[in-house]
Amino acid sequence: MSGFWPVSLLIDLDHEWWLPTPRSYTDTADHLPRRSRTLVHESIHYWQQLSHGYLLELAQEDWRQLLEWEQGGHPALGPRRERYRKPEGRHGFSAYDLWECEARFWEVLFVGPPVVLREAVTRARRESLSGEVDPDLAVLARRDEADSQTFDLAMQLSGGYAAPFRVVRELLGQRDALVAFPFLVHFALKSGDPVATFERLLDELAPALVAEADRLGIATAGWDDDVAAGLYTLAADRAEQVVRDAGGSGLLHAPALFPESGLADNPVHAWSFARLEQLAATVGGPTVVDAAICLPGFADFRVLLARMLAPPCVRFRDRQAVDLVDLVGAEPDPGLGGAPAAEALEVQARWETFQGSLRTY
Fold this sequence. Notes:
Largest sheet: 4 strands, mixed
Strand order of the largest sheet: 1-2-3-4
Structural class: mainly alpha
Number of strands: 4
Shape: globular
């Protein structure tokens, strides 16, 4: 099964061994799309880990568990991990749902809704005894261009992963959901209570984002750098206030939390956050990098993240692994050393041994 491991930052891909290239990120629809879109999805989880303070604290709980077990203890599940998948709030989804929905949203945009719909038609025909599929789906799948209708249907086909987006879509409509959703979920995961924060942001931030998007001319000119920057700045400022008004101390930015976190002695996390800091110094500060992680589907941002912040290691179905930075990324500053693929695999082996021990109790 494909997945991302927050303790080791390792990506597992449930595909036969292959060599990713920069086109996996920049030309996802035309370069081995089924494989590349899975790589993109799990890479987005890696970038989330370097931005969202809630996810950093979640991984810190897991790392503490591992270290305590290795020292002979019987550590309890951390409070965030225990709550992570539990449905909450008036819409009944979890922090895990937010995490997955953000990644699926951008995965669909990277590969393009038409590719998602064509795959759905192929799968439906294969599974149908008659070979027939929903005619509306078949018609939309023949489109070459993405629009709000094809994106909406592609997200609907994402099953439970799409639950938070569906809520925003039902309340705001197609176009406004596409504008607001990335910011709502990004900043919700920078709080200590992502589900409650997401609901507050939907009520208090989404209308302001839609109004600002209209003022900036998104309806006629579409997204551009000025629109993205303006909406990001507005979202960050308003989200900070929403979190403080709810009794929090402000947004939880993973890079600011990392130095004092228990993960500081995790070699893969240490390398990743050092590279994040190096990238921020190169492109004009941490806000630029965080905006890229918030909006990774933008052409310039996807190149920036893939080249300068590629995940360290990918492991395939046959357990072979490759250094992803060496394949798609630019060389980091020599002071950081090479990408810690070996360290990621070593930490993951420790984690799997720990998890295996739990099944013997």
